[in-house]
Fold this sequence. Notes:
The structure holds two protein chains of two kinds. Chain A is mostly helical. Chain A is 44% helix and 7% strand. Chain A folds into two domains: 3-109, no CATH class; 118-213, no CATH class. In chain A, the strands form two sheets. Chain A has a three-stranded antiparallel beta sheet. Chain A has a two-stranded parallel ribbon with strand order 1-2. In chain A, helix 4 runs antiparallel to helix 5. The model of chain A has no long low-confidence stretch (mean pLDDT 89). By secondary structure, chain B is an alpha+beta fold. In chain B, a hairpin with a 6-residue loop joins strand 6 (131-133) and strand 7. The model of chain B has no long low-confidence stretch (mean pLDDT 93). At the A-B interface, helix 5, helix 6, helix 7 and strand 5 of A face helix 2, helix 4, strand 2, helix 5 and helix 6 of B.
Amino acid sequence: MNAADIIRIKELLPTDMGSDELREQFARDILRRSIVSARMESARYLARIRDVCAQMLDGRISQATARDILGGILERMGLSPQDGGGIANHASLARLNLVIDTQTQMAASVARLSEQTPAVLEMWPAWELVRLEDRDMKRGDWPQRWDAAARAVGFEGVSRDYGRMVALKGSPVWQALGEGAGGFRDTLLNPYPPFAYNSGMGWADVSREECESLGLDPAGAPAPAAQSLAPDREELARAAEKWGFDYDEIAKGVA
Amino acid sequence: MVTLDVTARMHPKLLGMLSDLGPVWRRAILGVGATALQIEVARHIRSESSVRHRWASRLDARPTGHLEKGAARVTSHATADRATVRVPIAGIARAFRDLEIKPVNAKELTIPVSAAAYGHRVRELARMGWSIFRPKGHDVLMGRRNGSEAEPLYALKKRVVVRQDRTLLPSDEAVSAAINKACAAYVKYELSRRTA
């Protein structure tokens, strides 16, 4: 499945919650496979985000056109970039770029994960976290984030070369990084880029030979978990476990 | 967007081997070729993006990151029968041919001629508070904001031809080398495991 199709199957999640509340109230799988934007309750607008991002990933429109389309809808909703409010303003340039960048980066990452066959993993067993896109305001704390994530997973599948951020593709460090191990609250909870809001950091494949020189042993390492954006039984199972599902108890009905 | 076909640049011996292999090996080899091409294409575009800010520099504008972002979204896909790499960048087809650009939902194209207009559509600037107007008899859009002096924002054109620029994507030789080197290395590696 290509990145544009991955966007197209996403569900819409209108909400009046802020990003912190979203993190607390929704399972990460639901956020992962949804088009969601903090404090955006218009399903119509979210559908248009889905549409323009898919068109961008098909190479049919540029980001400026995508922003223009979304800005037009927001204008009809009474929102303007002149209202101030910075990134909290849906119509601001920064917010529009953030929404588009995040959705298209996520879809491209899921598409890449879906192509990690055993043969590809034999040839490029690891990823390196590198800067792929420039940003005006760059986070300077990626080494600290990386170190915290690596420690959280006991350096499982993580290179001890401290000058670089390299780990096997199946290492749990990617999930830990996405969950903000070390107390970072600006992450997106995903085991793939973007690992934090408005981040320009992404994956570069690392060859088997380079892994060996970095002291990484890919033999027997787990493959990265496939990232499905379709609802699966795991979601049902997690909800059942969370709420203590008991057939006999529920089937009796409520007194 | 362009879609690059991996098998189009594969060595005849590899293609011959593929024809004799079952679907599992075919997908494995094609997947390696596709990933190798995806890495090469992304690397090449990233490299090119760092030196292609001529228009932005001339206007003293901030680059939009159009190529750089596109490079980060290059993906590959392989089945047992086909392997492709998608380059999701609007206008990237000019690596292979001249592109004639005509207005779609307007009478004229708007070519930014100021830093303020670069990377923005006209309506977006208007929403940002610019008052935009066309002086009678001139093929230009002027604008002012917050009572400032009016300045030219966009030149208006009926059509623009963007000349082919093959260097936007890696050369055929580089593509071929990336695909065949990776596939050959993979086959060699698997054969060494068989005899080990």
